[in-house]
Amino acid sequence: MLQKPALIDIGANLSNRRFHADLDAVISRAKEAGVAHIIVTGTSERASHDAHALTQTYPGYLSSTAGVHPHEAKNWNAQAARSIEKLAASKTVLAVGECGLDYNRMFSTEVQQRACFEAQLQLAVRLQKPVFLHERDAHDDFFALLRQYRPQLTGAVVHCFTGNTDELRAYLDLDCHIGITGWICDERRGDDLRKAVKFLPKDKLMIETDAPFLLPRNLPVRPDDGRNEPMYLPVVLEAVAAILRISPVTLAQQIRKNTEQFFDLLTTE
Ligand SMILES: [Zn+2]
Q1: CA 102 to ligand 1 center in whole angstroms
Q2: Beta-bridge mates of residue 180
């Protein structure tokens, strides 16, 4: 029998309300598709608590991150910092984040974003847990802060990397891991990314869906509601494997090893 490669989705927003009604079915479909483990992204104080609660409902199959997304940086304060710190210390929380800078939509000011990001970098250093990073249209400021803290961090993954080859090389110089989403499947806007991925060392690569967002555009059958979910992770694997000209099964083994080491995660078959 052909074994499906066991994959780990390092970023799925399963506490998003679009999963409230049918999460059991979503998880079953993910398992059937060969997804062995999912790390649920925490994007706000509330979402991080919800993500952590989900890890208790699906023990062993779900882990989470705890952090505040740059969009939410305006809500960062002493109370939120304490709450995230407490949460991030728990065993099933594998990383601090998602945190970073996003100057694309500016839901929080640059000053708020930088303060919120820096506090979470410091938290990750204190807890000695890796950071799960988000950067959009803010490469220079983001890079400067990350470089400052990188020597003290245990690990850093730039999640949903969508940048160009120069940006990729800069992150690799800081010994970052790179998270690739279904953005790579987008013929209209994934061009820079597809070029950059060719320069990505295989041991720095991880994959994610960012569900319910970023539904791969190349699905043969598109769900009516346009919702992405972890069962589509193999589509991302196959897109990356095609660019790297390597078999998906071989690549999946490498990615799994990277992911388990990076998050200090021991999954079971
Ligand atoms: Zn993100």
Answers
A1: 9
A2: 207
Kindly list the structural domains of the chain, giving each domain's residue range(s) and its CATH number in brackets, ordered by start: 7-263 (3.20.20.140)
* Rounded Cα distance, 242 and 20, in Å: 34
Distance of CA 37 to the CA centre of its chain: 13
Angle between helices 45-57 and 78-88 (to 10 degrees): 20
Torsion angle of C-alpha atoms 33, 13, 258, 122, degrees rounded to 10: -170
**What is the token pair recorded at 140?**
């220079």
* CA neighbor of 216 nearest in space, from 180, 246, 241, 244: 180
9-40 pLDDT, tens digit per residue, is: 999 999 999 999 999 999 999 999 999 999 99
Tell me how far the alpha carbon of residue 136 lies from the centroid of ligand 1, in angstroms: 8
pLDDT tens, position by position, 77-98: 999 999 999 999 999 999 999 9
Q: What is the pLDDT of residues 126-140, one digit of tens each?
A: 999 999 999 999 999
CA of 224 to the centre of ligand 1 (A): 24
Task: Over range 105-128, report the average pLDDT.
Answer: 97
Q: At what angle do helices 248-263 and 233-244 cross, to 10 degrees?
A: 110
Ligand 1 center to 223 CA (angstroms): 22
Distance, in Å, from the CA atom of 20 to the CA atom of 67, rounded to the nearest integer, reads 21
**Chain centre distance of CA 34:** 18
